[in-house]
Amino acid sequence: MYGFGPFLPDQPAFESNACSDVLNVIPSERGYRPANSFFNVTGALTARAQGAFTCRGKQGTIYNFAGDATKLYKQSSDGLTWGDVSRLAGGAYATATDGWWDFALFGDIVIATNGVDAPQKFQLDVDTNFAALGGSPPTAKFVFVIRDFVVLACHATANDTLTWSALGDAEDWVASATTLSDSQTMYEGGSIMGGVGGEYGTLFQERAISRQSFEGPPTVFRFDKISNSMGCRTERSIAAYENLIFFHSNDGKKMLRGGAEISDIGAEKIDRWLEAEFDGSYSYRVSSAIDPVKKLYMMSFANGSASSGTPNIILAYHWPTGKFAPQSPGDHELIYVGATQETYTIDGLDALSGTIDGLPYPVDSRFYAGEGQLLLAAFNTDHEQGFYTGAYLAATIETGDVQLTPGFKSMLRSLRPMLEGTSITTTVTIKYRNRLQDSHTSASAVAVNANGVCPLRVNARYHRATINTAANDNWTHANGVDDVVFSKMGKR
Q1: Residue 107 needs a FRET pair 20 to 30 A away by CA distance; which of 22, 27, 369, 472 works?
Q2: Burial level of 263, CB count in 10 A (0-12/13-18/19+)?
Q3: Distance from C-alpha of 387 to C-alpha of 337, rounded to nearest angstrom
């Protein structure tokens, strides 16, 4: 059997034991698994989503928040609509076209920043609208929490500066040796591009990465350089899971482990492919998220064929295996990790659909399993929120070039695609050429017959197979191609 190797578009297509192209699949230890489609669940925001956030209150209630250019929203308790919870004083927000809402939870207070308006707060289980965060905090792009401190980074007046609150008080921002509130300017490394909180902070700049560790008065925080030259190229490419942080640097995809070790996860794999695909003029439309169920780091971006910079590609990285795969699940505004807010009973499914066939997700989906289920979520271009747990997308897996008879042409007569599942509509297209510098010629697509075999007749020196499945097919694993039947032909 010729197994489906990893997607390595930066490697030679000939005998690299890699796939030259894949789409709408998820990498696995052996081959690939299907990727789910998006299905919208909620009503729409009034404009393009420019940030989203999920959290759990102290009383156990799940909350989902979102923001557009002028408003902040909270999802209804049934998870089906969005309510305007913008501030009542100060007028509409003024989020820039290339701006985002950033959110963090400190105790029971959700803090939201957009780099233009004063930081906003919403006390869970208490407030009905956002209001200005007390203590006159600086206006900043990013907010995150390190231990008992709220950090506001990339000030509107100084993009290389961050300020942290008083110990345990999100509304005290007066610099003080007693409360430990203070600021720090990062004189080297350029603009701050984002940060990740936790027991310690990880601060990303354009050309530097630093670890922000609490050490108490008088310095409060110590800043140790993890990198003096490498930084983050794209603001919203940063996503963290446990002790791993993923980001997009000027020289490709990287992973930071344990706040110390940087790995080149895209080098000689997909970095050159990504550089060619990535439309840098719309880098501000990038978003990223962790799919905790499938163990994927996902980065959404617009490629050269996107409409007005609307993201149309999601690059998935499966960190247990170190493999990548692109997906094209449809145009969308952003991706994020969302949580379900409602536990549905059989009777409660009527709120979603009058028929079983009309339900947005299969009946065994985690969406129905109870509130608090973390799932990969998104907003579509109609500003509606939903999850990537729908029917399987139409998938493509294309092998690299193989010379079946070394030194000779071969007549490829048949092969068997090895896909596991209960209902699969599989077709195979053979691409072939006689010189590696030639463009491929494609034979006609052939369906799998009743014996699971694709009958073929393609005479060439180099062959590759493109396997396609249809949308809504029910398959679980794509392993490779087997029973390859061919005959040795001449050298010319």
Answers
A1: 369
A2: middle
A3: 9
